[in-house]
């Protein structure tokens, strides 16, 4: 009986230690939908393949590293062992208001986001001319390729809330 209790205690302690170690080293991802009924925005039937009104990946459910068809606002989060990087990108155009808000973790953690419809879609101008417009409207949004210094935020071991159509967004 003592041997069984000892084995159970060792198993319990091992499980708790493993859970603590892995839980503290891996960033959390939770998908929470606060809309009833659940939303899959823009999907339309197309011979058994998804067809999105915006951001489609050639009828596939997974883009496999490829971006969706522009215009598409992107939430970009790169999880790392020591540091995560995140931004809201307008490089491929704008199609929805979005924000990324970190919670837990430490570092340069700040809300990133964009609220207004992008000028590229409204004015139909070349994107090079619109960089100052995007930056003036939302300085923290990733507006063009290599816009890293002003647009990418970092956080160490954080958890992230991605909100579509937020009530308020970062400037």
Automatic annotation (TrEMBL):
Extract the Gene3D superfamilies matched here.
Answer: Thaumatin
Short name of one Pfam family: Thaumatin
Tell me the first and last residues of the signal peptide: 1-23
Q: Which residues form a coiled coil?
A: none
- Which pairs are disulfide-linked? 57-63
Carries keyword RNA-binding?
no
| Record flagged with keyword Ribonucleoprotein | no
Q: Which UniProt keywords apply?
A: Disulfide bond, Signal
User: According to its UniProt record, which protein family does this protein belong to?
Assistant: Belongs to the thaumatin family.
Tell me the protein's name.
Uncharacterized protein
